Amino acid sequence: MNHILLVEDEPLFRKGLAKMITGSETNWHVCGEAENGQEAEILIAERLPDLVITDIRMPLMDGLELLKRSKLKFPHIEFIVITGFQDFQYAQAALRYGAMDLLIKPCGKQDIYDALDKAEVRVLEKQANLRKAETEHALLLENTLRGLLLRFPYRAELAAELEISLANCQLILFQITDFMPSHKMYTKRDMPLLQFAVLNMIGEWLDMYHLKGKLLLIENGQFALLCQDSFEEKLVCEAACETVERLLGLQMSSYCAGAAAGVQDLADLYEAGRSMLGATMIAAQDKNDVQVDKQLSTNRAQQQLISTQTIAFILAGQIEQMKLYLAQLMKDIYGLSIENGKVEALSFSFALQETARKQFEMAYDPQLLTERIALLHACGTNDEVSQWTGMELDRFMSSFTAWQEKYSENVVWKAARYMEEHYAEQLPLQLVASQVHLNATYFSHLFKKETGRSFVDYLIELRMEKAKGLLANTDMKITEVSGVVGYDLPNYFAKLFKQTTGLSPKDYRKMVRPDPISNVRN
């Protein structure tokens, strides 16, 4: 969920705004409130909200000063300024200082919701851009690591960053001895596809053993893994070599070259490891081979970005946006050459597989994988590659639908049980959604799909059923019943009760307890 900090010196307005946001079916959660800019500045540093809604005129520190100071420290935090008409010039200054939007008092509920929708779009765009920037930076680090291993030029600041993350890591090498074994019909044109498949097979085993490290293709048939020394690394090496031979028919060997005291030792370790594996050192790679190696690294990074973005769509409940995103990726693949299209298609497939494994708890099926790679290998036209990619997407969407149906039933049951146990408390949609670890909008959709009622209607009916039991079986006053079932305002409770049952609480009690009882207190 996205988090809001409210800054307003008028308590009634601030509390009313908090209640409006909490009671809405939006993805926003009020994470804190402040009476002035000084309080807000401290809370912003502590809670790092996605959005701050602030008044301008406040004691100690006004909203304009808060905006200026906060934007310097936390430029990613969005601001919405609420002000009176007489502060309009100050509000214009707020926009220049980086406020996202401006609301004039008195502002209605729809004005607030429209501003929150706009802010959510902005926050989601920033999150997507951040994921892209992180992926691009990871790719730069990977290219720097490749440069260190091959004694190519590299950027010193990136090498220094690697020095911190790779201190005392073990360097493990994997080598494919022959890409065209006699029992397979592979050609040189198949090498990029095969290398990308091998890269991902090793990665799958790393994930299964929960080993963290950097895995990359260095040269044709040469892969490097840098990870902390552990017993599992030996099992991963054995399992990866066996899997590659069984599924792709390729002989692969591995060798632990040792630990690097620093990144400057990597080239020596790499050359010694290649020698132990029986590889002949290549003085200068073919230009096209270097391009292929870099392209496969880019594909691997792009694959991880696709998986991360797809999971983000699912968690945010943006299923239609996810479908459009994946459809566009398919369209982009269709415009490539056959060779590049196959690699991109396999990258797309691995991304979907990674998403299914992480999000849907799908088991890794290597035999099915090799059958699908064989079908891709046999594709001879762009149309056939596109058809193969479409089948991969259909397989993913089927898994998603099955997971959604299974998961939604469990989620709604858990939410309903929580509501049953806490019906007398304040129960905003966001709170209940957080109990089952779902985005509020997505949870609202699932809840209505499973129960046939909106969250609000379900909660009202639950409370009215509890109220009917209390009215029929206790001598509590109607005002007391109202409080016990979660309503601070008895008149509002009475209105809801009549809308639900067709009777006032008093008339309902008379109907279910027709005999006069002297100690009943209405």
Give a description of the structure:
By secondary structure, the chain is an alpha/beta fold. The protein is built from 20 helices and nine strands. The chain has helices at residues 11-22, 37-47, 63-73, 88-96, 109-150, 156-165, 191-208, 232-248, 266-276, 287-315, 319-334, 338-359, 366-377, 382-422, 429-435, 440-451, 455-473, 478-484, 490-501, 505-512; strands at residues 2-7, 28-34, 51-55, 78-83, 101-104, 170-176, 213-219, 222-227, 252-259. The protein has a five-stranded parallel beta sheet, with helices on both faces. Strands 7-8-6-9 form a four-stranded antiparallel beta sheet, sandwiched between helices. Helix 7 packs parallel to helix 12 (338-359) and helix 11 (319-334) runs antiparallel to helix 12 (338-359). The longest helix has 42 residues, at 109-150. It is globular. The relative contact order is 0.07. The model is unreliable at 280-294 and 517-522 (pLDDT under 50).
